[in-house]
Amino acid sequence: MSNVLRARRRLDLLQVVLFFVAVLLVVVADAGVTSQYRRKLEATVEMPLDADVFRVPPGYNAPQQVHITLGDQEGTAMIVSWVTANELGSSTVMYSEASPDPEKMELRAEGTHTRYDYFNYTSGFIHHCTLTNLKHSTKYYYAMGFGHTVRSFCFTTPPMPGPDVPFKFGLIGDLGQTFDSNTTLSHYEANGGDAVLYVGDLSYADNHPLHDNTRWDTWARFVERSAAHQPWVWTAGNHELDLAPELGEHVPFKPFAHRYPTPFWYSVRVASAHVVVLASYSAYGKYTAQWEWLRAELARVDRAATPWLIVLVHSPWYSSNGYHYMEGETMRVQFERWIVAAKADLVVAGHVHAYERSHRVSNVAYDIINARCTPVRTRDAPVYVTVGDGGNIEGIADNFTQPQPSYSAFREASFGHATLEIRNRTHAYYAWHRNQDGAKVVADGVWLTNRYWMPTDDDIN
Known about the structure:
Blueprint: H1 3-30, E1 33-34, E2 64-70, E3 78-84, E4 92-96, E5 107-110, E6 112-114, E7 117-118, E8 121-122, E9 125-131, E10 139-144, E11 151-156, E12 167-172, H2 179-191, E13 195-198, H3 214-227, E14 232-234, H4 254-259, E15 266-270, E16 273-277, H5 289-300, E17 308-312, H6 329-341, E18 346-349, E19 355-358, E20 361-362, E21 376-377, E22 383-387, E23 408-412, E24 416-422, E25 427-434, E26 444-449
Parallel strand pairs: 1-23, 12-13, 13-14, 16-17, 17-18, 18-22
Antiparallel strand pairs: 2-3, 3-9, 4-5, 4-10, 6-9, 7-8, 10-11, 12-24, 15-16, 19-22, 19-23, 20-21, 24-25, 25-26
């Protein structure tokens, strides 16, 4: 064999080796990460009823379980909610820009009240009062409980919606009221968000005998330390159903609907974000009220004014965990095509008690006969995150499917919370924080670019 032929064969062999190395590098670079981190071994335990986070505020008929949520789509109204346990008392809220002293607050709003029975439980008097004509980016002091024990709080209204208005959201789901839940909330508070996008499953009262509704009271007292000072945007989950025919309770969502005065599907505009809230456990089939609403709502989104389109659901559309596997599939089939066409940036879900982030993928091409049923990468699609890892009594979901599917970028069976810090119309920083780290440690983070203004390949950790 000639030296020329030997050299040519060596060159051919080298080219083959280099080709396979290149393929391997591409595969490795594109592979998702299944974190090998393992959370603490101790069981998830509910905090005792005498824990300080559940304490009833002192004073006769003192307002408790205070929380606020946005009262209109523009951020110029705030709904204040609270409970009085002894008697009805006053539904008045006094508020002011100038003074934290309730006696010097010059603005006044009158609210309404409700209460409900659930099996052997009767709620306290639940008050809801809407403060209107608020200024953007303004700190307000407010107080309630007049005639008995007055309590006062404060909040800052969101900035006026606009394309380059920065804002920081907390993303929390499936919180419950365990020691892990307390860590999650403490870490979120340390990270300093401006509002919470809450993706469902609040108190887990239905996990207790007879759907013990006192657990709705303890949970609301627990989260008051945050929810009384910044708006929480509520999504209804399966643990809000409280449907118990065996107890004579045939009306779904009764405790939730009395306590949290938001529609089951709705939208708000906050800073540079248009947030769409969907109801995984209300009808969403073709021509239903939710279907009709979402079709109209997506047509109203103005990406020039509010560039970031965020969708909240409870049951995830993309999840590689064996727990609750594909429970969100029918809603995905119904709505994913619309969400991709609208170039949504982020879809946030709970339900699965673990953390997962997807690549930007779409599965809308399949038409039942073309076999194109594998999710594919596309710049038009949102990133899907599951943050049902708040810390509830049911524990962690540690049953990820193997191998990790190609649409999954990062997943971990731990408790924690996420944040989304919008910087301007083109960039936002998304981060997930596990409870076992320091509060500000980022276990998974990625810079997201906006699908309308800058649709680049951005979903690599």
